[in-house]
Amino acid sequence: MTKTKKVKSAGRFGARYGKKIRERVTEVEIKQRKKQICSFCGHVAKRVSKGIWQCKSCKRKFSGGTFYIER
User: Fold this and answer.
1) In degrees, to the nearest 5, what angle opens at C-alpha 12 toward C-alphas 6 and 17?
2) 6 — pLDDT class (breaks 50, 70, 90)
3) Is the same domain home to 39 and 71?
4) CA dist list (Å): 1 to 45, 48, 59
5) CB of 29 within 8 A of CB of 66?
6) Buried/exposed 34-69: b ≥16 CB within 10 Å, e otherwise
7) What DSSP string runs through 5-70?
8) Do residue 44 and residue 70 come from a single domain?
9) Model confidence over 24-40: pLDDT tens digits?
10) CA distances from 63 to 12, 43, 52 (A)
11) Strands, DSSP E only, in 1-71?
């Protein structure tokens, strides 16, 4: 599968679903793939399940966004 320049990773959908939706998917995926930062200690946090995150350093569990931590 190849990516396209305009919709990047959402290029896997081809011409389906419309351009706007594919652009939104791309925005979410770019944010999702960045390293997420713990709001308590500033180290990397990992997603445990939907909306639940755990810091690798301080081991705190906290809630955030579904796909990425919203500040």
Assistant:
1) 80
2) confident
3) yes
4) 30, 29, 37
5) no
6) eebebeeeeeebebeeeeebebeeeeeeeebbeebb
7) TTTBGGGGGTT-S-HHHHHHHHHHHHHHHSPEEPTTTSSEEEEEETTEEEETTT--EEE--SSS--
8) yes
9) 999 999 998 999 999 99
10) 31, 16, 5
11) 36-37, 44-49, 52-55, 61-63
Same domain, 6 and 24: yes
Q: Which residues face 59 on adjacent strands?
A: none
Looking at residue 70, its pLDDT comes to 83
- The two beta strands, 44-49 and 52-55, are antiparallel
Six-digit token pair at 70?
């919203």
Spatial contact of 4 and 12, defined as CB atoms under 8 Å apart: no
Domain residues for 7?
Answer: 1-33
Count other Cβ atoms within 10 Å, centred on residue 7.
Answer: 17
